[in-house]
Amino acid sequence: GAGRKLCYMFAPWLAGALEFVCAQQGAPRMLASREVQCVAEGHDFCLFEVTPVA
What we know:
The chain is an alpha+beta fold. The chain is about 25% helix and about 25% strand. The protein has one domain. It starts with 10 loop residues before the first helix and ends with a strand.
């Protein structure tokens, strides 16, 4: 699996967790998440981008 993203499976979990936090703060919103970089690609850490769903 070297050279490709392997942690993509955590993206929906991250979006859901942050949606829960937003709702608890009184600002419910739908979010989408995607893996931007992964340790498996040679990076020092995995990076996810979370954006609001239009």
